[in-house]
Amino acid sequence: MFCCFLWIGFFFSSFHRGLAQGSSSNTDPGGGKSPPLQIVVKLGSDAMLPCDAVDVNQPSDLLEWRKNGSKSPIFIKFMNFKPHIDSRYSRRLHMINSSVILISGAKASDAGIYRCRTMQSGSESTILNHGRWVVLKVTAPMPVPVPPFFLKKPLDKITANESDSLSLLCLVGGTPEPEVEWFKHGASIPFERASVSPGSRLTITAVVPDDDSGRYQCSSVNSVGQLHHVFEVTIQRKN
Ligand SMILES: *[C@@H]1O[C@H](CO)[C@@H](O)[C@H](O)[C@H]1NC(C)=O
Ligand SMILES: *[C@@H]1O[C@H](CO)[C@@H](O)[C@H](O)[C@H]1NC(C)=O
Ligand SMILES: *[C@@H]1O[C@H](CO)[C@@H](O)[C@H](O)[C@H]1NC(C)=O
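A: This is the predicted complex of the input protein with 2-acetamido-2-deoxy-beta-D-glucopyranose.
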């Protein structure tokens, strides 16, 4: 076991020397050679994150992935050793091949900036290394549009007594959430005694038989449809 750790230690120090040389020779092993790759996946689907290897025909000796500049890698695979995967990803992160990892069932929290590094030791035992920035975006599915519909069937005829208050309710659902507007005889309702509360209840206080009787309409509209309902309102005169 000790021998192997020594070997790993040696390779890591070479790797880091390689990185240092790389940066001085204008090849940023952190991904400066390739532009950042943007990957967009839907919530719950699989995200494949590729890392550039210098020579795709030759397996990498080291593949390392970090997220959001974290000090500890989320994935590290060194030569033939079993890959080390951050415990938070243990069931969801898979190695596809020497340069590609896959995050299954992408969550919103998987979005972020990933950085990989690879290392290949060539035949002349030169250490080559390369890397890449990958920006992962996770998009929420677009909700299925639903035209407005009544959550509760509104009444058709409403009777109120003079000087009481009158309340009309139009409970509407839909996606996107519909707006509800109120009209009386086709015109919007301007009078001071009327108010509209959330949940689309129209309230008129101290009703007057001649002024407040009539046809009231609630109209609800969203991007995929519209819905209207007419209330016949009768105000009963006090004897
Ligand atoms: C790794 O897998 C990806 C996706 O399947 C593929 O495009 C790529 O060519 C593979 N690379 C190597 C080195 O096998
Ligand atoms: C990583 O960075 C992205 C973008 O700045 C941010 O939205 C996300 O919450 C970060 N994730 C973690 C786990 O820090
Ligand atoms: C109106 O007043 C009458 C008599 O007071 C009462 O029986 C009736 O329930 C009232 N109607 C409403 C809608 O409040």
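The first strand starts at residue 37 and ends at 42. The CA atoms of residues 193 and 204 lie 5 Å apart.
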